[in-house]
Amino acid sequence: MKTLLVTGGAGFIGGNFVHLLMNQGDVRVINLDLLTYAGNLDTLADIKEGDRYTFVQGDICNKELVSDLLRRYRPSAVVNFAAESHVDRSIDAPADFVQTNVVGTFNLLERSRQYCSSLPKNQAEAFRFLHVSTDEVYGSLGAEGLFTEDTPYAPNSPYSASKAASDHLVRAWYHTYGLPVITTNCSNNYGPCQFPEKLIPLMIQNAIAGKPLPIYGDGGNIRDWLYVQDHCRAIWRVLEAGIPGEVYNIGGNSEKTNLEVVDTLCTILDELMPHSVHLPHAQFKHFVTDRPGHDRRYAIDASKIKRELGWEPQESFESGLRATVQWYLDNTPWCKRVMDGSYLGERLGQL
To answer: What mean pLDDT is predicted for residues 110-119?
Structure first.
């Protein structure tokens, strides 16, 4: 049975990935998560601890803890989801992003390097350190073109700068020390269990409650939207067949403006909630001052992972978004529990 050390496995993408692994049947997961505001054990409430799953609350910056977990469980891979990930929040508190995203990744790399050097040759060669990153490290696109794996880095927010720094560390640990690393850079994820500070779950919650739907600037900022379960399938495929030292861009091939996203959400909510007192939900759209350093457009060229590893998204934006809205409607207790008072939907990231 393959053992994976998954960091940040109680978060949005990490939690969905842990569920994917539990469905594989031949994988054991050691889930290390600090359980900050965005980490939520309710996401994993249906997974019981036992031979195939162990949860450890702790910090990826803790040298002794990470070393102990590697020695004790002897994983064949480390999958690093652990990160502070919200641009607006990074404007308010950049130090937290540097600590987790840069220092934390450095610690994981160093402990993994030491662990890997202790393994027999065949196990060391099979070991993988998979670092999950973002397309935001590439900066902002113009009206044309796509981000490829060779696009120069040009981060514009404290969040993206911290992720770019961590990506460079991962690359360096491969070229300098030979640690078998792989990096994935994904486009904007959406789907079940996403913390409600992000665009799609925030709009869903506000629309249901009849609250304003704040849209930055003119609503024309464009993102490539990727359904989280498609992303998790891609990460699993990279673990299976990805080549050490390589970077794989993962995108949904679904470019939408923020305004298009909100309009589509409102239409779906109107259909799924025909008796709501807040119909039509689009009446609550509200344009607000744009956030500082807001990149205009991201778009991923995912042809490499399709060509070399045979992965492509299974969900369209419309099918994935409808499934996401339905999940939030069906899981209002989860939403209430994560909105415990530390974040109540207020705007973040204002200078």
So the answer is: 98
pLDDT (0 to 100) of residue 293: 82
Within a domain: residue 177? yes
In a domain, 75, yes or no: yes
Asked if residue 67 is part of any domain, the answer here is yes
Q: What is the pLDDT of residues 231-243, one digit of tens each?
A: 999 999 999 999 9
Residues of the domain holding 110: 2-191+225-255+294-316
For residue 28, give the CATH number of its domain: 3.40.50.720
Per residue in 7-56, pLDDT (tens digit) is 999 999 999 999 999 998 799 999 999 998 778 898 999 999 999 999 99
The 3-class SS string of the chain reads CEEEEEECCCCHHHHHHHHHHHCCCCEEEEEEECCCCCCCHHHHCCCCCECCEEEEECCCCCHHHHHHHHHHHCCCEEEECCCCCCHHHHHHCHHHHHHHHHHHHHHHHHHHHHHHHCCCHHHHHHCEEEEEEEHHHHCCCCCCCCECCCCCCCCCCHHHHHHHHHHHHHHHHHHHHCCCEEEEEECEEECCCCCCCCHHHHHHHHHHHCCCEEEECCCCCEEEEEEHHHHHHHHHHHHHHCCCCCEEEECCCCEEEHHHHHHHHHHHHHHHCCCCCCCCHHHHEEEECCCCCCCCECCECCHHHHHHHCCCCCCCHHHHHHHHHHHHHHCHHHHHHHCCCCCCCCCCCCC
Asked if 42 and 13 count as a contact pair (C-beta separation under 8 A), the reply is no
List Cβ neighbours of 276 (8 Å cut-off, separation of 6 or more): 208, 269, 270
Confidence of residue 4 (pLDDT cuts 50, 70, 90): very high
Number of domains in the chain: 1
| Catalytically annotated residues | 135-136, 159
In a domain? residue 220: no
pTM above threshold 0.90: yes
